[in-house]
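User: I'm writing a tutorial on reading structure tokens. Could you give me a worked example: one chain, its sequence, then its tokens, then a sentence or two explaining what the tokens reveal?
Assistant: Sure. Here is the example chain.
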Amino acid sequence: MHTPASIAVVSARGAQRWDAGHPWIFRSDVIQRPAAEPGTVQVRDPRGRPLGQALWSPASEISLRLLDRDPGAELDGEWWHSRLAAAIGRRASLAGQASAYRLVHGEGDGLPSLVVDRYDRWLVVQLMSAGLEAARAPIVDALRALTGCEGILARNDAAVRTREGLPRETALLHGAVPQEVEVEEHGVRYLAAPWTGQKTGAFLDQRENRALVGRVARGRALDCFSYHGSFALHLARGADDVLALDVSAHALERAHANAARNGYANLRTREANAFDFLREEERAGARYDTIVLDPPAFAKTRAALPGALRGYKDVNLRAMRLLGPGGLLFTASCSYHLTKPLFLEMLEAAAADSGRRVALRELRGQPLDHPELLTVPETGYIKGALLEAMD
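And here are its predicted structure tokens:
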């Protein structure tokens, strides 16, 4: 039974967002705010018609996140178990390919603001809304039952939690989670750092693109923005010589250790700024057979997009000029604000200015465990392209 305190009334525009397939309703479209604490509430349109149930975040600009279109559904432990089981089941085919992958991709799995990543026998979660935080206990119980994990770590240190009125913290929720976990993907092993690493411990969203690079790599290879060498490790499987480039000496130490872990003697590291290095190599007339560009997000806000586009074009232009005849370039962007059309336009402009004939071999996106919903653009951010120098 829903009391008036646990009911939110939204505008016609807010209701239309749900009808169009987007789970968010913003503060400006909440006509009647629930008097309830963060948690789950029933949502109704201006005529009083029940629309479904949502996570309620009183302090957030995103006030309501759709959970269930059934206004009478019991959002209890059994509900969370069922919804999480469905998400985990979609990843069943990945178990034989990798020991680290995403089990829950937030809105992409109908579980808004929840991220769950598996690292072998351990899980790392992110609870990124106040409404979801209220359901922490049943979520943890369901994950324990469904996975049999030895530990669950909350990496609740994302900036979005501040906007939700939540503390930023890293906390152990169950069992024990080691500082480092060795994981394997498509035959390559590396160390993830659940407590301190980027995101939840490693970049899992490029896993299948790394495998692609490993299949096509040859000759002299260059991995720019290498970080811990994730792409470089796959390059080393097919290339004669691999140079992993990064501005962080500490990151390159981890890349070197990961190479030794796999027995790759053909992987070298260099501490350098990728922009400067590519210009110097172009002036020196250097040539590479395989190049990877996987930079950090240059456009973290919409306002930063013009400058980011210049940066993306510059590194891609230099890389294209460094390719030998028939050379391959895998290039990617993880900037959400750089849309797929803009990404392709940028590559076209870089190719035009490079003076090379560059062919598009393959367009790439996100893997199975990072579903991108067509009606929820926020679920997608990875764009990738495999290019070939035709001259």
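What the tokens reveal: The mean pLDDT is 96. The first strand starts at residue 7 and ends at 10.
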